[in-house]
Amino acid sequence: MIRAEAAIAAMRDDFSCAQAVFATFAREMGVDQELALRAAGTLGGGVSRMGETCGAVSGALMVVGLRHGMTRPRDTSQKDRAYAAGQAFTAAFVRRFASTRCKELLSVDLSQPGGLDQAKRAGLFETRCPLFVEGAVQILEALGYPGEAPPASSR
Q1: For position 148, what pLDDT does the model report?
Q2: Residue 112 placed within a domain
Q3: Has residue 155 been placed in a domain?
Q4: What is the rounded distance in angstroms from the CA atom of residue 49 to the CA atom of residue 135?
Q5: What's the domain range around 41?
Q6: Is the CB of residue 45 less than 8 Å from the CB of residue 129?
């Protein structure tokens, strides 16, 4: 639960769901904290507040990529393993929350005029989003993350 608490604390400091999840794991996986925050910086609100893939999911998939991502040209077997791992995370998230889309999870479309204000007035970023961040962290942990990436020579 320590990682989930750290991720939720990051949200209280106004970092997005994506930043909170990714940065919490990234530093354990050898990625600089500032770099992690920057890399995930446009993924909150369902990708730049467009209401699409939840930032907690995007941040978690970045963690999956750190562990399984393809690094050698034409290494399609590693790409397949990475996609399978991403699908396993996503399936678990959907089982828990019924969707990966921000607009469905919040029942507010942030991309529409007034959507962001509506979400703020309803306190969704303080009540609903922490649940998705906590859930994403718990799912990653249940799937064995952070874990170790395979050595570069075996990729």
Answers
A1: 72
A2: yes
A3: no
A4: 20
A5: 2-150
A6: no
Whether 23 is in a domain gets the answer yes
Contacts of residue 53, defined as CB under 8 A and 6 or more positions apart, other chains included, come to: 43, 46, 47, 100, 101, 102
Q: Please indicate, yes or no, whether the overall pTM of this predicted structure exceeds 0.85.
A: yes
Please provide the DSSP assignment of the chain as one string: -HHHHHHHHHHHTT--HHHHHHHHHHGGGT--HHHHHHHTTT-TTTTTTSSSB-HHHHHHHHHHHHHH---STT-HHHHHHHHHHHHHHHHHHHHHHS-SBHHHHHSS-TTSTTHHHHHHHTTHHHHTHHHHHHHHHHHHHHTT-S--PPPGGG-
**Distances in whole angstroms, Cα of residue 122 to Cα of each of 93, 100, 117:** 23, 20, 9
As a whole number of angstroms, the distance between CA 140 and CA 61 comes to 9
Question: Rounded CA gap, 57 and 48, in Å?
Answer: 14
Residue 9 lies in a domain: yes
What is the number of domains present in the chain? 1
Could you report the per-residue pLDDT of 128-142, keeping only the tens digit for each? Answer: 999 999 999 999 999
Q: What would the pLDDT profile of 29-84 be if each residue is shown by its tens digit?
A: 999 999 999 999 999 999 999 999 999 999 999 999 999 999 999 999 999 999 99
